[in-house]
């Protein structure tokens, strides 16, 4: 069952009912000001950091669902009222539509012959959310309606905001000037920032105190001010400051009224904080408001945003016979990659924004799907990440985006972390050809006195693995590897203790075959880079280490039919046929095969076949099998989940991509693409009532075959799935791979495909690559011509002429 | 305006409307299982620790207010439904009443000729909340109605529960057996506890999955199961587990049906966790349920609870001509003292239960108003508190009740903390005569290898002050003294940084006159105790130190008309006429005068007169004046509050009691009692629409004269106000003071009083003390007779015969 449809021409998903199976959201903003917005206007905004600079309040796990805060509008018409987005008033509408587009959301609702269309977006280079509201009298009689706006301020620190009421109920302060409501809680003291909510028209009234607006016991569905059709002009003084305007609109039949509301964020330095005693300096806010004084100015900014996305998405464009595939590759997967690049795992409808900052491994992986869009931002991020790396090559697991410093509370010792940095650096250089990044002096542990060239960072990352080997010569797992929940050194028996932060033993026994596979795969990339920059000695050393690791994997990491997952702290096999539960895991199969282990002797194929047989389901591949049905103190968090959920045999979409890549490496394009379609959101749209999450973006997890809710997704948006699936489809399946000297063409597709066309911007040039498959093969190139000239091998040499180049590829 | 009335005979406050100005709550439980319950059934339960063992979910700062969780009931009658407590259904009732009593709450609601009475309580020695539900057909026709119960489980750790959704939405698990719904999330792994919700009758259906019960987007006001009159028999699997029963009740006219619902908590050791694989061992739960299988058993437990409170409250009973005074002294103030003893500042409608544990200084002070009730529990608490003391005599500022360990996150260095321990120990011995507590081997920092007799702890507490003196010889303030918000060593400029936990400089300049006053007051008590136990050398040493401190106060701590508050880090005066704002503070006036400073030379009276003139308002005494109107980095948090709120010139009721005591010490009973009535809750009942908080308990703060909301209270229930006001009224004003060798009688009352009678249990005896005031004086005793015999002095010698003794006191 569907709850809307894709409008590919407009790059929108159009939701046709407010009653989606779960709130279906979008993100606004892509630089410093971010917002989450659901299909009924729920959500919140923050500046840079969802924990430390939360601008508006949102209640997670609210009852009613999603009615915990948002940018709310109400229309009051002659004694009755409704909301154009259905929520919060929840009065039936004659028409409803929500269009989630690239960086904007447009909600339209109609009732009583009044059509209201609201476009929400964050303009480029702007620290604010703009709402263009168009109210139209679509009836035959003149109308006099009142429009009420509403939002609730968060007292900046989102965690403290929901805990420290004995203080917080006393601190709220606002200022009101004209049509602008300023939120200035704690500005009097140490804060250098305030927020505002404005409208570009004179108002009839306002409220800034929540209780005055709602009534003591009313909900957002029934504010007493709206029910009465009249604001109270309340001035908040403690408790919960809000911002609500009311405007009387007189509309002739057919007449429209356009209004611009702005939710803005302003920082003032200490010297420029005040206009006069306790009166805030409003200069910057007024400039922001002036910028969008008219609906025309807003339309122009919307057009700029549209052009911005047109340009970004033009860098990789697919024309295939499959609409679902086209919309994933051309629109939604790339769009989601931008969101994961911006936010890592910090703020979604499942990530509360107060739990954590930017992940080291997460952000490095997110770069893989993003860096072709804006390489400069990728470069900056790489340096930010590397700056939190520790001197021994290890890494803080997370950092706060506001401070860009490593997060002490979480700590480090996740032994896969450093390798992802190597992969990100390699991918950046392959995309850009910019080797100079290797020379950037980059601090360790954010200490500039400990700066070293980035090349030193990736060397230490590589060495961190070989400096931490266990009894079999496999890499020690540390607190955990990519699978945060496989905690082989924790041995926690304390109820509720966090596996991620509690003291873990400095285990020198438990080893990860997954890190070993990563080391081989990424180590080869490191080797190639070293060769490329002429550091042959380092390349030779690395080659030797990689070869050694590969041998160790084949000797100690293969279980007969598939790759082991690990050795535990007792030196016992994890992910082995010998185990009672958790006999096979997905991660090591993916990375070992991607690294080329077992290709020669058929073990790679064996492992992939075992994946299909034991982990395959119609909704994707489960992480492990059989699921754990009891707690294993020696395995940790993975065995705390009910069977079929999350890391315990859930369909963890992130690692599904590694199997796609591995199948592609083996040339099994049919299987690779089959796995792709099992989890790609556009393909899940048909059964949204089961899947429940947004059909335009990936979710982290889908309940596995052992779960009662098999097929139900969770944790949409912020997942490494987006990036890795883009890598899998664009580079491994469609086979257009950036390489040092050009674009490598190496498809691995379903045999029955006739062909497809990819238009790829690369280092300033554009390559229109037509792939033809007359012989119905999966892989292998029969011929490659560039601008009519035959090229040997499978690399399109980079032209660097800024021009369009026609490429024809014949498979066979 | 009033929203109810006191029913003194039943020791209840009767609320007659659900629309109180704020939810008016009660506490259930007084040992290990606690609940908060509002007048419409909102609130939550926990076992020992509101953060780590939260049993049911409650959403603070919810919209609609208080509709964020509770124990909810719905009646379904032929297509329509309502809640007997008004919430959550919010349908109009024909009758409504809520009776908050001693450890129980009874809510009655009537509609459609159905009267429903629900009594909520936690039986003595029982880890569960019992709901006795009586449904009566008060109409003339037979009725067939359905009763729905509802509560929502918290996933144990209340902080994690509202943050870690990416995990928590996957972990929820329940079991259902008969009429019992068991909540067992994480029991599979490390938890040794589960909860259950039962009813003592066969059920027609159940729900344990929130979404199934409510519908995806519905609120608690409109659950789809209730609207349909039918449960879905849903079994939770992740997301939000709940517990709801439905029962069909067929009632003839006049017929009643009694049901018993139980919300229980069970712990099982590792060995006894399971009945069979993944099936929890229910033995303990079944025993708990069996205990209250009948309404009769419940009634008996209610009677036991009533007897328990009758006994507790009999220990200090006043008969005066003032009903408000009687109900405060005899019922509500003592009741609140029990609550503050149990919970410190951990869980109220303002304390979210996740911010902190038990305060060191808070709990020591709370003991003062509690220890006459159950001295054994006071003794245990004193040892718990002293066990977290540090070796240098300082203290952790807070500890977690579940672990009883000092809270590292908050730390220490609040330099008044140690002195409160001395005061608590002295009060305990005076109440009980039990000197053996001084010999109890008590750890430092919870390290049993560092145990020492409690007498050593109080010595180190005393010495901690004199080992930390500043340039004037006054005590260094450390991070802060009693006024947490006067942070003279923080110098914080970082937005949002916590003044309580951020690194504070090890200031050796800023001094506290308040601690100096405390040292004199409490030091004298320490001296007397040392004399009492025959440690003359220590007594002499302490006397000398106290005398020295008193001299220092008079030389450096008096500002001409009142006592200074402190010296800041620059050595400048705080709370001086020289200051621009904050010229006078309340705390040092109270403690210096209580300590006897300035009594001889009239400075004490001068200071108290200044308090009246500068701090007095009709709603109580403000903390300081003038309020701070800007941020003073050298003063810290106090200047972050808007003027008139909290520590910045709010009426901080806690310290109002110190002025009452000081006025009593000076024999000015009229003023002492006047201040008492300005803040005592029963006297605020008349203007509840301004005061807004419960008129039966103290609030921490009332907005001061500089505030826009002058007279509005906040932070009700958990405040040191309860304990100190009980000390002020019972010991300083009514003047019945426990002393080492008997009860001291030393009233300080309004001159126009004719007299009063106090019945006091003391060390097993009962003293019926009749105070007569024929000469209309405030203080001074003309004669004292015990059982007809004249006693010299003002101490009733302790009889230790377990009998009733008649005491007559003539003032004059």
UniProtKB/TrEMBL annotation, chains A, B:
<dbReference type="GO" id="GO:0016757">
    <property type="term" value="F:glycosyltransferase activity"/>
</dbReference>
<feature type="domain" description="Glycosyl hydrolase 94 supersandwich">
    <location>
        <begin position="11"/>
        <end position="293"/>
    </location>
</feature>
<dbReference type="InterPro" id="IPR037018">
    <property type="entry name" value="GH65_N"/>
</dbReference>
<keyword id="KW-0808">Transferase</keyword>
<dbReference type="InterPro" id="IPR010383">
    <property type="entry name" value="Glyco_hydrolase_94_b-supersand"/>
</dbReference>
<dbReference type="InterPro" id="IPR008928">
    <property type="entry name" value="6-hairpin_glycosidase_sf"/>
</dbReference>
<dbReference type="InterPro" id="IPR037825">
    <property type="entry name" value="GH94N_CBP"/>
</dbReference>
<dbReference type="InterPro" id="IPR033432">
    <property type="entry name" value="GH94_catalytic"/>
</dbReference>
<dbReference type="InterPro" id="IPR052047">
    <property type="entry name" value="GH94_Enzymes"/>
</dbReference>
<dbReference type="InterPro" id="IPR011013">
    <property type="entry name" value="Gal_mutarotase_sf_dom"/>
</dbReference>
<feature type="domain" description="Glycosyl hydrolase 94 catalytic">
    <location>
        <begin position="308"/>
        <end position="735"/>
    </location>
</feature>
<dbReference type="Pfam" id="PF06165">
    <property type="entry name" value="GH94_b-supersand"/>
</dbReference>
<protein>
    <submittedName>
        <fullName>Glycosyl transferase</fullName>
    </submittedName>
</protein>
<dbReference type="Pfam" id="PF17167">
    <property type="entry name" value="Glyco_hydro_94"/>
</dbReference>
<dbReference type="GO" id="GO:0030246">
    <property type="term" value="F:carbohydrate binding"/>
</dbReference>
<keyword id="KW-0328">Glycosyltransferase</keyword>
<dbReference type="GO" id="GO:0005975">
    <property type="term" value="P:carbohydrate metabolic process"/>
</dbReference>
<dbReference type="InterPro" id="IPR012341">
    <property type="entry name" value="6hp_glycosidase-like_sf"/>
</dbReference>
């Amino acid at each position: 069952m569907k709850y809307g449809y894709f409008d590919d021409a407009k790059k929108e998903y159009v939701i046709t009912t407010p009653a989606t199976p779960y709130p279906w959201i979008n993100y606004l903003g892509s630089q410093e000001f971010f917002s989450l917005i659901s299909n009924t206007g729920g959500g919140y905004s923050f500046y840079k950091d969802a924990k430390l600079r939360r601008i508006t309040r949102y209640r997670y796990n609210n009852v009613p669902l999603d009615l915990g805060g948002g940018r709310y509008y109400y229309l009051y018409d002659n004694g009755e009222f409704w909301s154009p987005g259905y929520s919060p008033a929840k009065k039936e509408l004659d028409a409803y539509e929500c269009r989630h587009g690239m960086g904007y959301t447009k909600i339209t609702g109609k009732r009583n012959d009044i059509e209201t269309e609201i476009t929400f977006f964050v303009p480029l280079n702007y620290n604010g959310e703009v709402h263009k509201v168009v109210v139209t009298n679509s009836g035959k009689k003149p109308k006099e309606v009142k429009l009420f706006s509403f939002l609730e301020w968060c007292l900046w620190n989102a965690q403290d905001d929901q805990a420290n009421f004995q203080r917080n109920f006393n601190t709220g302060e606002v200022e009101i000037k004209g049509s602008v409501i300023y939120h200035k809680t704690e500005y009097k003291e140490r804060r250098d920032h305030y927020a505002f909510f404005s409208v570009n028209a004179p108002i009839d009234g306002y409220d800034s105190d929540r209780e005055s607006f709602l009534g003591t016991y009313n909900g957002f569905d029934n504010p007493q001010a709206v029910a009465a059709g009249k604001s109270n002009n309340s001035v908040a003084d403690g408790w919960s400051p809000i911002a609500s305007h009311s405007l009387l609109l007189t509309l002739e039949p057919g007449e429209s009224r356009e209004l611009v509301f702005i939710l803005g964020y302003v920082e003032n330095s200490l010297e420029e904080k005040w206009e006069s005693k306790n009166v805030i300096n409003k200069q910057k806010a007024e400039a922001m408001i002036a910028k969008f004084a008219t609906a025309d100015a807003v339309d122009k900014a919307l057009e700029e945003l549209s052009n911005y996305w047109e340009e970004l998405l033009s860098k990789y464009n697919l024309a295939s016979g499959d609409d679902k595939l086209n919309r994933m590759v051309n629109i939604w997967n790339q769009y989601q990659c931008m969101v994961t690049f911006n936010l890592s795992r910090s703020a979604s409808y499942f990530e509360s924004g107060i739990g954590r900052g930017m992940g080291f491994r997460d952000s490095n992986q997110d770069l893989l799907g993003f860096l072709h869009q804006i390489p400069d931002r990728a470069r900056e991020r790489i340096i930010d990440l590397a700056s939190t790396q520790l001197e021994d090559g290890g890494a803080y697991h997370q950092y706060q985006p506001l401070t860009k410093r490593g997060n002490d509370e979480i700590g480090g010792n996740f032994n896969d972390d450093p390798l992802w940095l190597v992969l990100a650096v390699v991918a950046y250089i392959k995309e850009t050809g910019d080797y100079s990044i290797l020379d950037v002096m980059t601090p360790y542990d954010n200490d500039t006195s400990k700066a070293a060239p980035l090349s030193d960072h990736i060397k230490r990352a590589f060495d961190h693995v070989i400096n931490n080997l266990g009894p079999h010569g496999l890499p020690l797992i540390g607190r955990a590897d990519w699978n945060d929940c496989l905690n082989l050194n924790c041995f926690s028996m304390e109820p509720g203790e966090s596996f991620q932060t509690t003291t873990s033993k400095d285990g020198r026994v438990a080893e990860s075959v997954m890190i070993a596979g990563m080391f081989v795969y990424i180590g080869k990339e490191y080797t190639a880079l070293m060769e490329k920059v002429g550091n042959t000695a380092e390349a030779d050393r690395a080659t030797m280490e990689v070869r050694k690791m590969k041998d160790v994997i084949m000797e100690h990491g293969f279980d007969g039919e598939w790759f082991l997952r690990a050795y535990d702290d007792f030196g016992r096999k994890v992910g082995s046929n010998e185990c009672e539960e958790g006999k096979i895991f997905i991660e090591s199969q993916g990375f070992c095969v991607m690294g080329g282990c077992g290709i020669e002797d058929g073990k790679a194929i064996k492992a992939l076949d075992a994946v299909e047989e034991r982990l395959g389901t119609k909704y994707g591949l489960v992480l492990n099998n059989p699921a754990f049905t009891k707690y294993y103190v020696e395995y940790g968090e993975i065995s705390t989940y009910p069977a079929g959920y999350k890391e315990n045999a859930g369909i963890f979409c992130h690692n599904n991509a590694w199997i796609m890549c591995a199948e592609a490496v083996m040339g099994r394009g049919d299987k690779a693409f089959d796995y792709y379609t099992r989890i790609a959101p556009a393909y899940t749209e048909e059964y949204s009532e089961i899947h429940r999450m947004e059909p335009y973006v990936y979710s982290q997890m889908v309940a596995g075959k052992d779960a009662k809710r098999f097929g139900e997704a969770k944790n949409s948006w912020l997942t490494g799935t987006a990036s890795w699936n883009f890598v899998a489809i664009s580079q491994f399946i469609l086979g257009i791979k950036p390489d040092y000297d050009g674009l490598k063409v190496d498809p691995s597709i379903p045999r029955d495909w006739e062909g497809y066309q990819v238009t790829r911007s690369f280092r300033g040039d554009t390559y229109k690559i037509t792939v033809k498959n007359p012989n119905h093969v999966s892989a292998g190139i029969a011929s490659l011509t560039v601008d009519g000239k035959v090229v040997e091998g499978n690399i399109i040499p980079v032209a660097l002429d800024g021009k369009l180049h026609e490429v024809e590829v014949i498979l066979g």
